[in-house]
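## tool: complex_structure
## caller: assistant
## args:
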Amino acid sequence: MREYDDTYRHKGLRKKLMDSLREKGITDESVLLAMGNIPRHFFMDPGFDSVAYEDRALPIDVDQTISQPYTVAFQTQLLKIRPNDKVLEIGTGSMYQATVLAEMGAKVVTIERQKKLYTATKDFILRKKYPSASLKFIYGDGFEGQPAFAPFDKIIITCGAPFVPPKLIQQMKSGGIMVIPLAEDEHHKMLRITKKEDGTTEEETFSDFSFVPMLPGKNE
Ligand code: SAH
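## result:
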């Protein structure tokens, strides 16, 4: 059995990482507070322990990645999370981003298309703290969204999408926000889409990020 220990050293490195995110322009203290509370090293192979609090993406299983902390902070900040927001995440991956959202008081539904990563969610180490009423894991195709739990206040896509999936727009509440990295080449521009009361959408664009691709269908 793996041991999970959040030592003073981890906590110290985490605090430094939050300071560096602040220096890089993250201003939403509720995001930094949540990320400061979550032991990121729990969400990766113990072999990466020494680099878990560097501001970079790291490999997880099946050739996927846990996003860079700056990217997690930036996307979360764009979402303007309020407690009890119903949030859909596409791309569970390591479960880190979903846990940050749950720590902020959101009710999170997160979808993963890789069976192996989904299966790992059954052993989610922080399950006692975030019961399934606050964080639900689904095996499925993010292009379909999750109609059973729709509509959502917020939707976050954590893989590079080839286009904005129409079903996800349908599953947003009016007044809702979607944050989605849109693939152009190997770079992704970050879009924030706000759905207005009349059902039309408004877009804002933010600068380049890099993500693993959003792929269609489920993978056994
Ligand atoms: N949010 C994750 C980031 C993981 S990387 C974290 O915090 O660790 C992006 C993930 O999106 C990968 O695990 C990939 O398998 C998943 N993904 C890609 N296309 C998808 C789709 N259509 N539906 C659901 N998940 C998808």
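## assistant note: The CA atoms of residues 136 and 174 lie 23 Å apart. The pocket of S-adenosyl-L-homocysteine is lined by residues 64-67, 90-91, 93-94, 96-97, 111-114, 117, 141-143, 158-159, 212, 214-215 (CB under 6 Å). Handing back to user.
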